[in-house]
Amino acid sequence: MDNSIYMHIAEKIDENPIMAPKSExxxxxxxxxxxxxxxxxxxxxxxxxxxxxxxxxxISIQEVSDIAGKDIRSVERILSGLHQRNGIIGMGNSYSLPxxxxxxxxHQFYSDVKSEDIxxxxxxxxxxxxxxxxxxxxxxxxxxxxxxxxxVDKAISADQQKxxxxxxxxxxxxxAPDEMAxxxxxxxxxxxxxxxxxxxxxxxxxTCIMMGPLALHFEMLKLGKRVTRQxxxxxxxxxxxxxxxGMTDNSIKDGTVICLCCECCCxxxxxxxxxxxxxxxxxxxxxxLANDDCVGCGTCVERCFFGALSLDEETNQAVxxxxxxxxxxxxxxxxxxxxxKLQRYERTTPFGTxxxxxxxVAMENREGSG
Length: 370
Ligand code: SF4
Ligand code: SF4
Ligand code: SF4
Prior knowledge:
The chain is α+β, with helices and mostly antiparallel strands. It has helices at 4-13, 31-40, 43-49, 61-68, 72-84, 100-103, 115-130, 134-138, 168-175, 186-193, 213-220, 229-242, 270-273, 299-303, 330-334, 354-368; strands spanning 59-60, 89-91, 94-96, 147-149, 180-184, 207-211, 225-226, 245-249, 251-253, 257-261, 286-290, 309-311, 318-320, 340-344, 351-353. Helices cover 38% and strands 15% of the residues.
């Protein structure tokens, strides 16, 4: 089969707020992305998917059958098989193409290692890392980050004001969607499968906390374990204590995912730690400050992924470079003296809702894509 059907699917994906990966001069889709679509979707599946609307917009089995001129039972069989393989999203008798965040990770929610998972990881490397797509994935063309940092309450100094949903507990308990599921972290699963996971001895692969319709999708696939808000809080605290950075959508309300990220595998944070995207994540409105109980042990300095802490040469106490600090608080959680706490440092404003974030990112990307 030639590429035209897959090009058609790429055009639909390109209507996503985060647009599809392109070549360096942006005149064509990245060839490795087209190869990736071929790896994910068989010719028989692609033939049907080319008639789908943009990602996350649903189309019924009957409509696909009418447009494609195919027998409804065979359409139903093909689409339901694809749904079971995590290739599309389902709702009743309708399906939709997945958004890019799901599409690019399809193979990496499963722990068994298949040859196509390795091929998928290689293609991801070609268009996502080498082709520079990470920039468009992490932030808009104008520099709006898709994710924001959420520190846990315990890291924040008791005398500091906390605004709505600014710390993880308040966000999870009062502002996140009702449905939550623990789903294997695809970033660390990918590096684990190809043998390049640098954080192997420090962190488990662990899970993200998917929310809303995504939680239901992964629960249906038996890849997600439904949890209560309180269980999500406990899991979040446990992972942050290990040293993983907490992030969610760059909005105060709703949200699709809470991530617990390392600096070496994460598709979001690596923009800052390994690549050249200072806008890869929105900083919280806090930075750490050490008090006189600091004994200069250096534990916090070692903990920080971002090289934002050092020991002052004269006082031998921890000092922060606020421009490098994202305000995650994992340094404060590690201090054996409890001498380090987050203090307010106003610098960022998340969107009100995820819908507003997505709308702004879509507009900025259309304007910026030329
Ligand atoms: S963004 Fe973070 S938690 Fe989410 S999948 Fe990537 S590393 Fe895992
Ligand atoms: S971990 Fe605590 S005591 Fe050690 S250097 Fe950092 S602030 Fe000071
Ligand atoms: S100094 Fe580092 S670990 Fe501490 S809050 Fe800032 S970015 Fe996070």
